[in-house]
Amino acid sequence: MADPLSTTLRQLVFDRANGRCEYCLLAQSVSAHKHEPDHIIPRQHDGETTAGNLALACARCNRYKGYNVGSYDPESGELVPFYNPRRQEWSDHFRLEGASIAPLTPEGRVTAKMLHFNDANRIEERERLMAVDLYP
Q: Across residues 107-124, what is the average pLDDT?
C-alpha cells in the first residue's frame, strides 16, 4: 500500500513547482488531468515519501515514468538515471526549441525518450498553448 501524502506535503510539492510539471513544464491550469506528486525514486526502489523525493508531474509524465529510474541513453548506450528535479536544474538538461523539448545531456535524452516529451500530440499541444502564452 502506498504511503498517503498529507495535504501539507501535497501542497508543498505543488507550490514548489509553481503548479507546473517538473518534467515537461505543463501547467496544471491548462491540463485536463490533475498533476500528481511523483516519487522521483519510486517506493519499490526504496524511495521515501518525503519532500526531497517528490516532484510535481503531469499525468502523462507520471504514467510514462512509472516505476523506472532511468534507461539506456540512445546516443551512448549507457544506463543513465532520469533527470532529477530535486538535484538538477531543468535548463542544464533541456531547452525549448519551438514547441519541442531538446535534451542536452544523457539524463535529458533518457528522460525525454522515456517520458515521450516530443510525441507529435504533445508538441501540438505545446504549440497551441504557446500561441496563447500559456506555455511554458
A: 98
